[in-house]
Amino acid sequence: MRIVQFSDTHLSGRHRQFAANAEVLRQHLAAIDRPDLFVNTGDLAMDGAGEVADLEFAAAWHEGLSAPLLAVPGNHDVGDRAELRPDQPVDDARLAAWRAHAGPDRQMRDRDGWRLIGLNAMLLGTFHAEEERQFAWLEGALDTSAPIALFLHKPLFIESPDEGPRGYWNVPPAPRARLLALLGAADVRLIASGHLHIHRQTRFGRAAHVWGPSGAFVCGESQEELGGQRLLGVIEHELAADGTVSSRFVRPEGFRELTIEPVVDEIYRKKQPA
Ligand SMILES: [Fe+2]
Ligand SMILES: [Fe+2]
């Protein structure tokens, strides 16, 4: 099964600074020979958490892809933890807008002997009632003997599973520990995320941890050094029948490594780059 992961498209009809890269991505995806599934690991919209119009625009952009789409929400789609974005917390209205325009914020698909799970990472650490519901749902989703591929927006961790908080960049320690305990009891082979606008591939135990690059922009000086490569691209994952995974970084011809910093104030007003 071939899954093409792209991420952090930051699409908007109002903010067109990265529209040329979106067009390069669209043409690249259209030219891929018979993919089984596309995955967008979040931040589909430039500022969907601020303007529903951006979510609508992003959802429309994904129509007509040559394979089904599994999309998970990012902070710029449904908001973030209140301590990080008091002006854009994850709340009922933002979750409802995502579901109306992009579909379920968590989902599970069985295909070719694999279980594919899309998780709403933005709920983790919010204490929103949906966070508990999602954990309960996840326990059921992980109750399978099939190999599992998990897709979510924020990486669980940057360097190690037991690291402390990294603010904006990772899943906070308490929900991460809970999540890792659940994942550790299942046959999880791939954990693929977005958010950092960085490509990196590592392995912890049985699971490959893949950071999917953005298709819109990279971060410059506003992002601390997190390792990996600040390149635009997509990832082609091959999920084999024997449960093995191979992931390949592909850089579409024509992408320009534009950075967010020159335009971050006009787009986001506050410094929330990735
Ligand atoms: Fe993000
Ligand atoms: Fe992003």
Number of helices: 7
- Biggest sheet, in brief? 6 strands, mixed
Computed over alpha carbons, the radius of gyration is 17 Å
Name of the level-1 CATH class? Alpha Beta
User: Order of helices and strands, N to C?
Assistant: EHEHEHHEEHEHEEEEEH
**Which parts are unreliable, with pLDDT below 50 for 5 consecutive residues or more?**
none
Residues in helix, %: 10-25%
What characteristic shape results from the CA principal axes? globular
How many β-strand stretches?
11
Strand order of the largest sheet: 4-5-6-7-9-8
Q: Mean of the pLDDT scores? A: 96
CATH 2nd-level architecture: 4-Layer Sandwich
Q: Would you identify the CATH H-level superfamily?
A: Metallo-dependent phosphatases
How would you describe this structure to a colleague?
- The radius of gyration is 17 Å and the shape is globular.
- It has a 6-stranded mixed β-sheet, with no helix packed on it. Strands 3-2-1-10-11 form a 5-stranded mixed β-sheet, with no helix packed on it.
- It has one domain: Purple Acid Phosphatase, chain A, domain 2 (4-Layer Sandwich).
- It has 274 residues and is an alpha/beta fold.
- The structure holds fe (ii) ion (FE2) (2 copies).
- One fe (ii) ion (FE2) binds next to α3.
